[in-house]
């Protein structure tokens, strides 16, 4: 298990486990989400499990719609931050307009704090006591993925799942015994 998020570090760890021939299930928090991870890890990515909180959820219609609109306008797809930043600016502009001034930051913050919006990372709303964004399956979900033959497969939460968790057939370069997780 590793919580070191840079993609290059995650790929180095995956390659080291793969070379070591150790039977292990490798969990790396966040780093494998980046395309650079797969490019650097190669076959060593197979079976790696990772999770992500936030960022565009590919399974959401809004994410797909915005990606396609961006592509139609600019001839390329936005990076992972493009959609989130775009919607955050729209959210702030809406709040500033409703309050009547972008300079009344406390009023703008209170307005945003009362909103509940579908965004590319899920349903964004805020806890009135902590002012933190709500997380969970009905809010901004923690997504769980596993690499299989070079593809990311979301296996949780169920509403976003494109597959199920699988014990890798080959861990560390040799066959493992199937069992249940």
What this model shows, in words?
The structure is a single chain. The protein has 181 residues and is α+β, with helices and mostly antiparallel strands. The protein folds into two domains: 7-54 and 140-175, Response regulator (Rossmann fold), CATH 3.40.50.2300; 61-125, no CATH class. Helix content is 35%, strand content 17%. It contains five helices and seven strands. The protein has helices at residues 7-20, 35-41, 61-74, 82-99, 105-114, and strands spanning 49-53, 116-119, 122-125, 142-148, 151-156, 170-171, 174-175. The strands form three sheets. A three-stranded antiparallel beta sheet has the order 1-4-5, with no helix packed on it. A hairpin with a 2-residue loop joins strand 2 (116-119) and strand 3. Helix 1 runs parallel beside helix 2 (35-41) and helix 4 crosses helix 5 (105-114). The longest helix has 18 residues, at 82-99. It starts with 6 loop residues before the first helix and ends in a 6-residue tail after the last strand.
Under the CATH scheme, the architecture of the largest domain is 3-Layer(aba) Sandwich
Strand order in the sheet with the most strands = 1-4-5
Task: Tell me the Rg in angstroms.
Answer: 19 Å
Q: What structural category arises from helix and sheet content?
A: alpha+beta
Q: Beta fraction of the residues?
A: 15-25%
The end-to-end distance, rounded to whole angstroms, is: 16 Å
Total strands: the figure is: 7
Fraction of helical residues: 25-40%
- Poorly predicted parts: 172-181
CATH superfamily of the largest domain: Response regulator
Give the overall pLDDT as a whole number. Answer: 89
Number of helical segments with 4 or more residues: 5
Largest sheet features: 3 strands, antiparallel
Tally the structural domains: 2
- Can you write the helix and strand succession as a string? HHEHHHEEEEEE
